[in-house]
Amino acid sequence: MNLATIIGFIFGIALMSWASYDAAATAGIPLMKLWSFVSLLIVVGGALAATAIAFKLSEVLSIFKNLKRLISDNPYSLTDIVKDFIALAESHKKGELQKTLESPPESMGFRLKTSQIGCEYVAGGYKKDVIVDILENMEENRAIREERQAKVMKTMGEYTPAFGMIGTLIGLVLMLAGMGVESTDGSDPTAKLGASMAVALITTLYGSIFANFIFLPFAAKLEGISENKEVESALILEGVKLLYDKTHPILMRDKLNAFLEGKDRILDEE
């Protein structure tokens, strides 16, 4: 679980809620005055509609599928992958690579899914350039897919402020149109103008919140996840190539350590 995302989201909601409550209490206004279903519909519904025009429906729906990725961490680290390749190099040295791939140790099994294809090609006797070409194509297409997913989220972040402004303009037009109309219930027209202006500005508020607190940060998060995947894929590709060359486990360790930060590097064969 990605604690940074969860803590940031909860802290942001708490901070904005406290600030809104304090401001409303100081002004003697009910907090519910900040709620407007129509404004929410204009901002979120309008942004979704515009995004659906710009992208495929499946790509728009990926917004909801990506929520799990945003709060989940990899169950393994780059260090774990390096350890896996060292163990595979040991197996390959003994002529037991296929056996290890078919029945991986419990500590290795759930991580091998990221590198199993390349290792199986090595065990299957495929040529090195064929293996490299397949893995590079897989990585290239993964990067393109995830870039599109982040772009959808970023586009939502660009559209929500625009639709917030559209909602505000609609409110202003209706407010100005009603300025010359006499009140039929005897109420103060000035008070109605103030209330109408407040409702008009709520859509701008919603647009700013959804853009800068949800969609744009989430898009940046997806981009960061994709960049981390690039490093992981480069590590796996290098590991597969070294495995193909039957590199000694110690040399395998030293070469793959280059992908790790100093504190995470493996200093022995464990």
Outline the fold blueprint.
Blueprint: H1 3-27, H2 37-54, H3 57-65, H4 67-71, H5 78-93, H6 97-102, H7 106-109, H8 116-123, H9 128-177, H10 189-244, H11 249-256
Summarize the model shown.
With 270 residues, the protein is an all-alpha fold. Helix content is 76%, strand content 0%. It folds into 2 domains: 1-35; 37-264, no CATH class.
Labels describing this entry:
270 residues, 11 helices, mainly alpha, 76% helix, 2 domains
Task: Describe the model.
The protein is mainly alpha-helical and 270 residues long. The chain has two domains: 1-35; 37-264, no CATH class. The chain has helices at 3-27, 37-54, 57-65, 67-71, 78-93, 97-102, 106-109, 116-123, 128-177, 189-244, 249-256. Helix 2 packs across helix 9 (128-177) and helix 9 runs antiparallel to helix 10. The longest helix has 56 residues, at 189-244. It is elongated. The model has no long low-confidence stretch (mean pLDDT 87).
The secondary structure category is: mainly alpha
Range of strand content: under 5%
Instruction: Give the terminus-to-terminus CA distance.
Output: 27 Å
- Major pleated sheet: none
Secondary-structure element series: HHHHHHHHHHH
Number of strands: 0
Number of domains: 2
Q: Which blocks of ≥5 consecutive residues have pLDDT under 50?
A: none
Helix content range of the residues, please? over 70%
Our count of helices gives 11
Radius of gyration from the alpha-carbon trace, in angstroms: 27 Å
Please give the oligomerization state of what you see: single chain
Mean pLDDT: 87
What's the shape?
elongated
